[in-house]
């Protein structure tokens, strides 16, 4: 059976690269805490934006797609789900809200992990809700010729309960002994390798990631969508999981690829948090100024719909007026037309 003794494993992960990232993230953590205390009201806007982005991104990764307007209405409970996909969206919404509001009171154990899975699927009637998998699941790839190959093989049905129980026990035994951020990421990798459910493993793993980060004091995922950053780099995400899975069953796997990836995700989240806070809290910035600064600091092109998504409290009219002024003054360049119109910063101050 797999050995989950994190106390014996974590020192091997303290490479110069990982240590450097840990130091940087902990510096960001301190700054973030001060900002949150100083601008609680102003940051509510970021919470709402991140919530929509997280629900959308994590479900997109599982090919669960809903139109943006419809998604926002579901997220804000302005409508009821009409089909199974929307039921899964609403379930993710509710679990995300539970984590944001009650993370300090959610223990890491078998029963609560099953409860999170049950809540994720509570709007669907299924015998698999809130229970571990009932059949062995194999993660496979299909090549261009249609041939399948096994990418990784999770633990068997018979070993699932004992594996999750051992995983949770090892996590608690390592608390206070192992760097909390490394412990959180190692736990998530092992959870993914166990793959305990028939369905929903990816979404549950990302929700648990937020839960563990919140409990460890890395609260940035409440204001910046961790799931969106992962979805935008999903090829590297899946590659990192696979590279850390190799020889997992033999207790010889290397956690470093997945740890490095997740640390980079957190660093990007904190950087994005700092940038957005500057726009929100600068007393000299009007709404039009915010649109200008977003385009100026955005890498590549950006669409009007993306600006609206990033600024839900700025009206369509204000955004359109800001774009028109920037075009008139030669600050931005318009690319394409109609619904495919994009904008890019044109000049340097």
Automatic annotation (TrEMBL):
SUPFAM superfamilies, A to Z: Fic-like
Residues binding ATP, per UniProt: 199-206, 237-238, 251
Sequence ranges assigned to domain Fido in this UniProt record: 108-264
Catalytic site: 195
Single Gene Ontology MF annotation: ATP binding
Gene3D superfamilies reported in the protein's UniProt record: Fido-like domain, Winged helix-like DNA-binding domain superfamily/Winged helix DNA-binding domain
Keywords on record: ATP-binding, Nucleotide-binding
InterPro entries per UniProt: Fido, Fido-like_dom_sf, Fido_containing, WH-like_DNA-bd_sf
Annotated protein name in UniProt: Fido domain-containing protein
Natural source organism: Peptoanaerobacter stomatis
Lineage of source species: Bacteria, Bacillati, Bacillota, Clostridia, Peptostreptococcales
